[in-house]
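Deliverable D2.4 — example input (structure tokens):
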């Protein structure tokens, strides 16, 4: 019996649980700090642009290191990688908790990011190695808990902590969990992923850093600095040129750092395309809804986070269930049904007004999350199932990289659309209001200020609704692409309709 067959007979659930905890705190930490940025800005007396580097820097390091994770996973054992990554993450967390200056806090966040970048690809690769194709849906469904619940819980948890405690508590609560995961990992982790003696191409790392880092920074900054900023279009241009150079270089190499030839597998290429489109659209709920709740309606950050909590819990409950359904029915049915639910609920978000209740928003978001839980992991798992085992590190690295980039592009696109719509609507409403005022009875300064505030609120509301509408159209592209999904069999090949009917008859007769 081979090592792989032995693993498939008895998957290392204990080891996966350790990796699961490590990945969960790492991903949770990515969104945990967002609500606390104003408090940090006040304490260290730094500008909004400077404090934003705590999240942008974290994301950039992830964008640079995740593409390199394919090389790292093939070159080093999963135990040594986990212990190194978790040690870096823990050191960064402790340093952030005690940081006396903003510079130290920023360095701490970058160290954290260096550790967390490897966590998700490593966990995915261990599970792809440990489970046979027919059981991967259930396993990857559990993995979905990390992918979707951790980022959703971040704003709720941080909102409550920032309102009741100082921002350093955000790091203090992570330290014991990270330490426990590290200590258990030292004694309990075993090596299951295969290693190969491959050399790292330094120039590929440089191109990857400028390419993916430039794209991430450029699109992430576009919403705040505007597309006309040289920092925005300059870094995007550098990013595009570097990525093109990286792709050409990898295609010429016998042992590439990141294998782009995996796109010759049609279901992996299709799943990547659907994931890119979905990541662009689904970020709308994570960005636009908090803006509406806090800026337009005046709810607190904690209330904004609380609004999303039921949705996070729904996704947490549904992820393992969706995984089992995937093993039974495949990705196509789940993706189409999930997208129809997600698109229907997103339509309701295009109709937000000043009378929409907190309970209505919470319910719609929870149902939307239910739909989302049926799409992302099944589609991604179906694509990865078509790859040969030795290509799994490249597949997971590619998926994680593309999601980071497309999420940043989607965020920038939707924020830009919202801002443009808000500005044009504000001008239109202001002109209408001025035309309705009798010149002989001009309102007081206080009344004018109140009117301006109401106009801006109404304009932003229109901008948010329109951005949700655009995200709805983007989801429509994902729905059309989902119609072409074909199920992957245990041999890694696509199951045709005829083959599926024969398989079902055989199962029925037995």
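Example output (designed residues):
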């Amino acid at each position: 019996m081979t090592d792989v067959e032995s693993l498939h007979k008895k998957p290392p659930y204990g080891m996966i649980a350790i990796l699961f905890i490590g990945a969960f705190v790492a991903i949770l930490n990515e969104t945990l700090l967002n609500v606390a940025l104003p408090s940090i800005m006040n304490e260290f007396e730094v500008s909004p642009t400077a404090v934003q580097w705590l999240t942008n820097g974290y994301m950039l390091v992830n964008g640079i290191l995740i593409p390199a994770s394919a090389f790292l996973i093939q070159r080093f054992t999963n135990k040594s990688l986990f212990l190194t990554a978790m040690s870096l993450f823990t050191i960064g967390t402790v340093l952030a908790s005690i940081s006396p200056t903003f510079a130290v806090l920023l360095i701490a966040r970058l160290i954290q990011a260096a550790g967390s970048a490897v966590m998700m690809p490593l966990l995915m690769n261990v599970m792809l190695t440990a489970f046979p194709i027919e059981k991967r849906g259930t396993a990857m469904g559990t993995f979905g808990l990390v992918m979707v619940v951790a980022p959703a819980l971040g704003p709720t948890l941080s909102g409550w902590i920032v309102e009741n405690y100082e921002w350093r508590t955000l790091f203090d609560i992570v330290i014991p969990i990270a330490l426990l995961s590290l200590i258990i990992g030292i004694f309990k982790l075993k090596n299951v992923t295969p290693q190969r003696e491959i050399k790292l191409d330094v120039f590929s790392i440089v191109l990857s850093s400028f390419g993916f880092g430039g794209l991430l920074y450029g699109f992430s900054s576009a919403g705040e600095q505007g597309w006309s900023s040289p920092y925005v279009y300059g870094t995007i241009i550098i990013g595009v040129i570097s990525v093109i150079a990286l792709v050409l270089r990898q295609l010429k190499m016998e042992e590439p750092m990141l294998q782009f030839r995996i796109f010759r597998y049609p279901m992996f290429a299709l799943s990547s395309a659907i994931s890119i489109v979905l990541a662009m659209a689904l970020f709308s709920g994570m960005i636009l809804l908090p803006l509406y709740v806090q800026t337009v309606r005046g709810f607190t950050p904690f209330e904004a986070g609380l609004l999303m909590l039921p949705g996070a819990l729904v996704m947490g409950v549904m992820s393992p269930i969706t995984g089992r359904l995937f093993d039974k029915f495949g990705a196509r049915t789940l993706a189409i049904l999930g997208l129809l639910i997600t698109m229907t609920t997103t339509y309701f978000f295009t109709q937000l007004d000043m009378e929409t209740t907190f309970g209505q928003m919470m319910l719609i978001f929870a149902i939307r999350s239910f739909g989302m839980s049926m799409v992302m992991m099944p589609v991604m798992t179906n694509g990865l199932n078509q790859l040969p085992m030795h290509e799994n590190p490249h597949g997971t690295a590619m998926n994680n990289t593309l999601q980071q980039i497309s999420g940043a592009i989607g965020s920038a696109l939707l924020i830009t659309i919202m801002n443009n719509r808000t500005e044009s609507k504000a001008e239109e409403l202001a002109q209408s209001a001025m035309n309705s005022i009798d010149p002989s009875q001009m309102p007081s300064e206080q009344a004018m200020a109140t009117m301006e505030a109401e106009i801006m609120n109404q304009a932003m509301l229109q901008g948010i609704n329109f951005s949700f509408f655009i995200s709805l159209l983007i989801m429509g592209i994902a729905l059309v692409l989902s119609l072409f999904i074909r199920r992957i069999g245990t041999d890694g090949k696509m199951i045709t309709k005829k083959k599926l009917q024969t398989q079902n008859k055989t199962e029925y007769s037995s």
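The chain has 20 helices and no strands.
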